[in-house]
Amino acid sequence: MANGNFTRVTEFILIGVSERPDLQIPLFFVFLVIYGLTITGNLSIITLTSVDSELQTPMYFFLRHLAINNLGNSTVIAPKMLINFLVKKHTTSFYECAIQLGGFLVFIVAEIFILAVMAYDRYVAICNPLLYMVVVSRQVCFLLVSLTYLYSFSTSIVTSFSVFSMAYCSFNVINHFYCDIVPLLALSCSDTSFPETVVFISASTNLMFSITVVVAPYFNIIVSILRIRSSEGRKRAFSTCASHMTAVSVFYGTLLFMYLQPRNNHSLETDKMASVFYTLVIPMLNPLIYSLRNKDVKAALKRFLTNPCC
Q1: For helices 193-226 and 231-259, what crossing angle results, to 10°?
Q2: pLDDT 10s digits, 12-34
Q3: How far apart are alpha carbons 17 and 1 in whole angstroms?
Q4: Which residues pair with 8 in a beta bridge?
Q5: Beta bridge partners of 14
Q6: DSSP code for 8
Q7: What pTM, to 2 d.p., does this model score?
């Protein structure tokens, strides 16, 4: 437990991606490009799926919210990270750290379940096409997204409170480029068994439930596709699902690697590299994976550039 002789922490120091001075400027430009592409790609998806009449379907409605979460997740992390590449003192206040962790959790948990909802949407579209607009109606879409955000906010509040209710004394150097749960708890001078239990139960429940929701529909999708007699039809259906499943596998695999291993097996350096991938790289890639290779989105982009007022 915390001893009264310790000084309470009022700010944290973020070590960053690398401590090597000669890498700070090159890394700044690398991550500036990544963040710039993330903003451009996801804002394009949000704009096109909002204004184009041909993209007003459930699939693109969910895609819009995936883009919102990707953009939010990167924006919670990247600006502070980029600033720290250029300054010598990588400090963040106690409350700024709490807000960053809370924001990160809102978007990452929401993204997990948006991906699961998108898998369900594809299942209905391929396996029950005649009932698609009834089962995945406008009201159902809004309900699913609203429940996703409500749950992600609740998870964020509970988890952030359990982490920041711990005592942090004297040592305040976080071996990470943002305020994440594992390196924060490593600094606590309190018994961290309660927040560790909260985090483990929350992370394992979220991931196992959402993975089940993804795997079960895709099993049925694959069975349905294999029943298609036309080889061209099977190829087209498989190509539609392959990109989504690849992105989902990478995303869930990274999160499982990060949060479902015992604390004594954690390598913070390895975790940092995994964190770069799912907080910054995946949000940059998702617009390409899900839509910029999609002929409907390409056509919508062409229409928008030709006549942006319509």
Answers
A1: 170
A2: 999 988 888 888 999 999 999 99
A3: 30
A4: 169
A5: 174
A6: B
A7: 0.88
